[in-house]
Amino acid sequence: MGKELIFKTLRHEETKDIPWVPFAGVHAGKLKGYTAEEVLMDEDILVESILEVNKLYTPDGLPIIFDLQVEAEIMGCELMWAKNNPPSVKTHPLAGEKKIPCLCEIPTEESGRIPMILSAMRRIKAEIGDEVALYGLICGPFTLASHLRGSDIFMDMVKDPKYVKDLVDYCAQISIAMSKMYIEAGMDVIAVVDPLVSQISPKHIEKMLRDGFTAVFDYCRAMGAFSSFFVCGNATKQIEEMCKTNPDSISIDENVNLALSKETTDKYNITLGGNIPLTTTMLFGNQEDNMKAVIDLIDSVSNTNNFIVSPGCDMPYDTPIENTIACAQAVKHPDATREMIKNYETVIDDSDIEIPDYENLDKVLIELFLIDPEQCAACTYMEAIVVDNYDKIKDIADYNTYKYIYRDDIARTRKMGIENLPCMCINGEQRFISIIPSSEELIETVKSYVKK
User: Fold this and answer.
1) In the chain, which end has fewer C-beta atoms inside a 10 angstrom radius, N or C?
2) Phi, psi of 423, deg, nearest 5
3) Cβ atoms of residues 417 and 367 within 8 Å
4) 93 with 76: CB under 8 angstroms?
5) What's residue 373's pLDDT?
6) What angle is formed at CA 206 by the lines to CA 160 and CA 243, rounded to 5 degrees?
7) Phi, psi values for residue 37, rounded to 5°
């Protein structure tokens, strides 16, 4: 049974099979013809869509809702909704006002969209909860703190680290409150999804984040639930610090070398999940590409205990059904799949992409290579730091944004030799890789490229 396979893996027991967890967030709505907004706001549509994911993709574990803005909306952030993506945060209530919200503002069962989500969880638990491990996804404390404070938080980390720690600790109390509600609604695993952890140094995690995150994972364990620390972006340097927060599992995206990361997570006896490429493979690849990606992941690790195969993050809305079915096939029948694809090679042609002549540009050129700023929080804040400061540099600089959800932009990313997203290039040089600069750092760096 899939649920027991997940449980054994999260208990770090030896297993014969590898679990499969498709992170079909808004893609669940696509299966039934609903928009992202409909699936994230309507209980009946959410339940119908998740049950369709279960039917088509035969998961061992399954998230109910993938929306990192639920808590932010309750805490006063204005959201911008989209048809094919979860909403993004548009306003930040603590921008320009350095304070800690009152404990009385922490979400309850009556707050925002929580009543709808809890009811959907209970209904899905009653339908499939005996066979499938159900995941409740919450916004991690640091990303929630950034939603509240905005891009100012990156300067705060330098100038006022105590405030950042206090704000993250406050947001951890929100995470604990969300965890309690979701566990009581029947969730087996609480996934603390915090994309921005990859954007800061391990030292920052140790000094400002570790206590808050550890408190959340300890709480889940005390409540009898499992936990997962879900990070996006190139979190290679952060994996060990993430392990020290003591989750049961860690999930990573395609920016991270899974085999190398598993050596670290195995050292701490923590389960690792990941990390099928979302756009190049799941969205734009074919069935063979997806089967090969899964088999390559399985074959890259020295042992398959403490390992869950999943997409690197929330699956793109338009992911072809057949590609996800191919992933499930490869996880559940790896030997037969290896035989099917033994002579298959992926063909890539980026020859049509032209790279700018950086030496002869009139202005400094900032190029933002992002996953999708409407869906990826780290991408949102990397784009925002440029947009928010553009008036200060527009006389000396231009900027372009490329999104890893379009074929041409994927090709450009490859041709530029960019391996990790989000990434900010200046005159063709990769200057900020999975790191969001402060306003001062951005402006000074751009000025350094002005021709004398």
Assistant:
1) C
2) -145, 135
3) no
4) yes
5) 65
6) 150
7) -60, -40
- CA-wise closest residue to 426 among 355, 357, 358, 354: 358
Instruction: Map tokens 């391996």 to a residue.
Output: 419
Distance CA 339, CA 276 (A): 20
Residue that the structure tokens 């050596």 belong to: 263
Q: Is there a common fold for 2-340 and 358-447?
A: no
Q: Which residues pair with 276 in a beta bridge?
A: 311
Q: Which amino acid is at 377?
A: A
Q: What is the pTM of this model?
A: 0.88
First CA to last CA distance, the chain = 67
pLDDT at 348 (0 to 100): 74
Res 307 pLDDT > 70: yes
Residue 150 to residue 198: CA distance in whole angstroms: 17
Instruction: Please state, in angstroms and rounded to a whole number, the distance separating the CA atoms of residues 322 and 57.
Output: 10
What are the residue ranges of helices labelled H in 160-207?
161-184, 202-204
How far is residue 277's CA from residue 258's CA, in Å, rounded to a whole number? Answer: 12
Question: Tokens standing for 433?
Answer: 């890789």
Q: How far apart are CA 157 and CA 167, in angstroms?
A: 11
What fold, for 358-447? Answer: Glutaredoxin (3.40.30)
- pLDDT computed for residue 436 by the predictor: 86
The DSSP output letter for 354 is: P
Which residues have C-beta within 8 Å of that of residue 66, sequence separation ≥ 6?
23, 25, 26, 86, 137, 193, 314
Q: pLDDT higher for 337 or 451?
A: 337
Q: Quick one: CATH architecture of 2-340?
A: Alpha-Beta Barrel (3.20)
Question: What is the average per-residue pLDDT within 349-356?
Answer: 82
Phi-psi region of 133 (alpha: psi -120 to 50; beta: other; left: phi over 0): beta
| Distance (Å) of CA 154 to CA 120, 136, 265, 383, 447 | 36, 28, 28, 14, 20
Domain boundaries, the chain: 2-340, 358-447
Distance CA 7, CA 4 (A): 5
H or E segment at 138? strand 133-139
Angle in degrees, CA 112, 116, 120, rounded to 5: 150
| Beta-bridge partners for 370 | 403
Which of these, 311, 318, 288, lies nearest to 405 by C-alpha position? 318
Q: What does the pLDDT look like over 289-302, one tens digit per residue?
A: 999 999 999 999 99
pLDDT at 293: 96
> Based on C-alpha coordinates, what's the Rg of the chain?
21
Token pair in block for residue 439: 């306003």
**Angstrom distance (rounded) from CA 409 to CA 407:** 5
What is the number of residues in the chain?
A: 452
Tokens of 197: 């952890």
